[in-house]
């Protein structure tokens, strides 16, 4: 009886150890958004050229990861369950559903806070609410994006910490430019480093929150189909934010070519980080 109890306790301790490691890796991936947030502070408050490049960079990150990483995985999950045609249809409906969802949020925000109402670059210091709103919407979309990432990191770490380590590192690399994407508009709009940092930090904390929710509720019901639908919807949200908020703001506050350079640079960074972990 004593040996049985010792074996039982040893198994529980090992399970607890695995759970703590899984949560720790997920927390590490989420915290990397703070690195990107801090990087954004090494610029002048009204450096519009840097702002234009950074916003374009953020759009490139979000567009590339949506179409080259999240959408293919969503399609694979859904077509594997429903077949090529039906699975693709569900992916497309979920993608455009995500766009519709974030568009409704955009529609509900008062018109006088809409960054599209800014008429001239000289109004940058008078119309900072637009940039602040852009940062908040990016934080929302990245937070939603990080939620299923947290579940993925957590579940992979439970199964095999060795496999989870490169996944965690890859997600951490991705989260650094995501932290920039949140921090830059907030900091440029308010000049408040603490506010910019904490909003960026909170968007990253969606990953350990996702892990915790997954541990308590979702894992017993989580299927590739649900994962595919969520990934496609989040892709739609990120693409809409990039097209409707990031790129217009980048071109409005700087030069067209600078925003495109930032866009391409963001795509190159994401492509490189993904290639290194093939």
Report what the structure shows.
With 278 residues, the protein is mostly helical. It has one domain. Helix content is 84%, strand content 0%. The chain has helices at residues 2-39, 48-82, 84-108, 128-159, 161-190, 193-204, 206-218, 224-252, 256-275. The longest helix has 38 residues, at 2-39. It is globular. 47% of the residues are buried. Mean pLDDT is 76; it is low at 112-127.
Summary?
This protein has one domain. Helix content is 84%, strand content 0%.
Question: What is the secondary structure topology, with strand pairs?
Answer:
Blueprint lengths: L1 H38 L8 H35 L1 H25 L19 H32 L1 H30 L2 H12 L1 H13 L5 H29 L3 H20 L3
What is the total tally of β strands?
0
Number of domains: 1
First-to-last CA distance: 49 Å
Q: Name the beta content range.
A: under 5%
Q: Structural class, from secondary structure content?
A: mainly alpha
Q: Give me the strand/helix succession.
A: HHHHHHHHH
Helical coverage, percent range = over 70%
Q: Would you identify the regions where 5 or more consecutive residues have pLDDT less than 50?
A: 112-127
Q: Largest beta sheet, briefly?
A: none
Q: For the CA atoms, what is the radius of gyration?
A: 20 Å
Structural shape? globular
Mean pLDDT: 76
């Amino acid at each position: 009886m004593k040996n049985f109890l010792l074996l039982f306790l040893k198994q529980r301790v090992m399970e607890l150890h695995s759970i703590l490691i899984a949560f720790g890796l997920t927390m590490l991936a989420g915290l990397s958004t703070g690195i990107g947030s801090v990087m954004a502070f090494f610029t002048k408050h009204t450096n519009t050229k840097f702002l234009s490049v950074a916003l374009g960079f953020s759009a490139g990150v979000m567009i590339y990861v949506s179409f080259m990483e999240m959408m293919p995985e969503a399609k694979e999950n859904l077509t594997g369950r429903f077949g090529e045609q039906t699975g693709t249809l569900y992916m497309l409906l979920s993608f455009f559903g995500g766009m519709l969802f974030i568009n409704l949020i955009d529609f509900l925000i008062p018109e006088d806070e809409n960054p599209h109402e800014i008429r001239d670059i000289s109004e940058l210091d008078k119309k900072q609410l637009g940039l602040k709103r852009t940062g908040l919407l990016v934080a929302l979309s990245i937070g939603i994006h990080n939620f299923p990432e947290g579940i993925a990191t957590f579940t992979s770490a439970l199964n095999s910490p060795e496999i989870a380590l490169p996944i965690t590192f890859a997600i951490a690399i991705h989260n650094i430019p995501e932290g920039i994407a949140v921090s830059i508009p907030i900091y440029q709009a308010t000049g408040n480093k603490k506010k910019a940092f904490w909003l960026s930090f909170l968007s990253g904390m969606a990953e350990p929150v996702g892990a915790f929710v997954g541990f308590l509720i979702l894992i017993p019901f989580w299927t590739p189909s649900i994962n595919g639908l969520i990934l496609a919807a989040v892709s739609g949200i990120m693409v809409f934010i990039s097209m409707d908020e990031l790129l217009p703001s980048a071109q409005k506050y700087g030069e067209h070519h600078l925003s495109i350079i930032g866009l391409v640079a963001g795509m190159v960074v994401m492509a490189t980080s993904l290639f290194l972990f093939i």
